[in-house]
Amino acid sequence: MISDMEPIFFSVLSGLSDQGFSIGVGFSNNEPKWVHSTYAKEWVDTYVEKRFLNFDPTIIHGQKRCGHFTWSELDAKYPDNPVFREAAKFGLSEGNTLSLNICGSRTIVSCAGRKWNADDVRKAKAAASALHCLQASEPYPVVATDKELDVLDLMASGLHDREISERLGIKLESVRMRRRRVYEKTGTTSPASVISFAIKNCWI
């Protein structure tokens, strides 16, 4: 069953990359429990030979913070790190990294290619989350809709329901309904607890 579904999610990640991608599930001390890569063999061999896994900025930063980062952003944060300069020799000069915290376990995906837009990030999150769950044998993570995330984001900014209603241009009851749905999905009962859940699971 798992082997039947994997190609679907691999295809999504391939569509978001120009020259290959890699995904690691369940990171612990820089080592993933499961990894899959479509990068060229020459680059993979160099990466392994030089032990880049131990100081790859995509992994170092991805284990510290979840979210979407471009390789240029990471290169600026780790200017003395040789990984990106070596990768450029293999034509891998631009790319994206997405780090997810799912049920307390970290999954990191990196794709070589143009900078992702918001829709690309959503697709990558969906594919990476699915692959995480297939490999980690964990239940599929709780997922909020874009409309629910809009309300959550404004709640986290300190806005009250009426202010959120005005900001989004929707009825007050619609705001309350979306908030109730998120409470039900996450098992939370207060703004503080749901915002804490959202931050821990990289929703906002």
Set out the fold topology.
Layout: H1 2-15, E1 21-25, E2 34-37, H2 41-49, H3 57-64, E3 67-70, H4 71-77, H5 83-88, E4 95-102, E5 105-112, H6 118-136, H7 146-156, H8 161-168, H9 172-186, H10 191-200
Antiparallel strand pairs: 1-2, 1-5, 3-4, 4-5
Helix pairs in contact: 1-6, 7-9, 7-10, 8-9
Could you characterize the architecture of this molecule?
It is a single chain. The chain has 204 residues and is an alpha+beta fold. Helix 1 packs antiparallel against helix 6, helix 7 crosses helix 9 and helix 8 crosses helix 9. It contains ten helices and five strands. Helices cover 52% and strands 14% of the residues. Strands 2-1-5-4-3 form a five-stranded antiparallel beta sheet, sandwiched between helices. It is elongated, with a radius of gyration of 19 Å.
Query: Mean of the pLDDT scores?
Result: 88
Query: What overall form do the CA principal axes indicate?
Result: elongated
Helix content: 40-55%
How far the N terminus sits from the C terminus, by CA atoms, comes to: 32 Å
Number of strands: 5
Strand composition percent:
5-15%
Order of helices and strands: HEEHHEHHEEHHHHH
Uncertain ranges: none
Strands in their spatial order, largest beta sheet: 2-1-5-4-3
Largest sheet: 5 strands, antiparallel
Q: Which structural class matches the secondary elements? A: alpha+beta
